[in-house]
Task: structure prediction
Amino acid sequence: MGRIVIDPVTRIEGHLKVEVITERGVVKEARCSGLLFRGIELILRGRDPRDASRITQRICGVCPTAHAVASALALDDAFGIAEQVPHNGRVMRNLILGSNFVQSHLLHFYHLAALDYVDVAAAAGYSGPDERLRQVAEFISRGQLAPFFPRYDGDYRLPKAANRAAVSHYVEALDRRREAQEMLSIFGGKMPHQMGTFPGGALEVVTVDKIAAFRWRLQRLRDFVDNVYIPDVLAVAGAYADYLDVGRGPARYLSYGAWDQDTEPDLTRRGRSLPGGTLDGTRMAYEPLDPSKITEQVRHSWYNSGTDLPPSLGKTEPEPDKAGAYSFLKAPRYAGEVHEVGPLARMLVAYAQDHPEVKPLVDGALSELRAGPDALFSVMGRHAARALECKAVADAMAGWVLELKPGEPVCAQFDVPEMGSGMGLTEAPRGSLGHWIEIEDGVIANYQAVVPTTWNCSPRDDRGQPGACEQALAGATVRDPESPLELMRIVRSFDPCLACAIHLITPKGHEIGRFRAI
Result:
């Protein structure tokens, strides 16, 4: 038996440790540990509820927008104003969230995951007409190769020309991401930690100039997604076709749905551009979403709070010396079972319902890869789903922005109630995101956030069931224990965000074992 420890995992957001036990080079058991204790929930207590959509964005600088939306939805619910959100407010929320999705998906493939498949050294010595490649070649010649190195050695299979094209696109994607952030800022005010999303709708005034500024940036992004991003993902998937059968998780998928198309108070009945629900991948069986089935378990987490609690009753009581625990992540479960969340889950849930935009995109990609739907339950399936979703969202925004009505209201009028409770469910780029709030005496009494990476990188639960990423690692073959690139390809296909997953904090200055809140 062998043991491989990767601590920390690089090119992700936050501090993640992965430990696996191998036998004859095959992973028999895996553990994912979130190690940096930090967060937001407790400092929200006693604050004005309207602060929540601002403070919760500080959970993460990569995907703060989804936290703003989830928080605003929870406050809409708690304030009893969900039906009063104006048309412009709803549409602007969708555009702000969609812009962040496009930016985040480009970030994940090109700047976090692609270097597991693309050999940047192919750009060394380049002196041709591609200015971006010349810049990378000059950078390499200096001998200071971060952020490209250090990295694990492995099988880099793309031909030299394809490698060079991917490196050029790596640089180009930096510009496209900047444009996506600018696009978000038009209606969000700034990025990160945008100011536009607010209880009751949004805060920006709609003008023709802003619509035009959004549209031309969006068109450039759509061109890049169609002509660069998707072809690059399919090229990598073709070269690494064996990874269409590597990294299979629990084969159960969860989506809350995203991008509201109406203001129905019941989130489970609200029309959304991407639908919510669950999918049993072994039978391709869809079921509607039931939020009452969501709980968090903590048997193997560094918490002594009650276990298997619904998020609305969730507690945050850390115990870093707890026997049998190995992560500061809790273990969310739906109907007591492990579920994977993220772009793959969203695309599969939509595909199972014959979504008119998603189904042809997925069928086209599967045809290109000469694979069936079950090939999506894999490392390359996650990358392909993320790229296809990026296109679906970008294309949808082209219609949404034209729905804005200059001069009309953007936010409902409301009073903060003395008592109330609310739930906000949406999707973040990395998966399903929920916020729950309890209000007493006009201030926040309790606040809980259950985030995508808490689902995907959770530790074992009360029944000993490994989390989604832990299951995906089991069965993987590692050719070189000193350079376990195969494991990193699996982990990074989930796009972990530990900043979001470990969003807990103690009162200032309070010692918790070797951790101190600051």
About this structure: The longest helix spans residues 208-239. The domain at 37-516 is CATH 1.10.645.10 (Cytochrome-c3 Hydrogenase; chain B). The two ends are 41 Å apart (CA to CA).
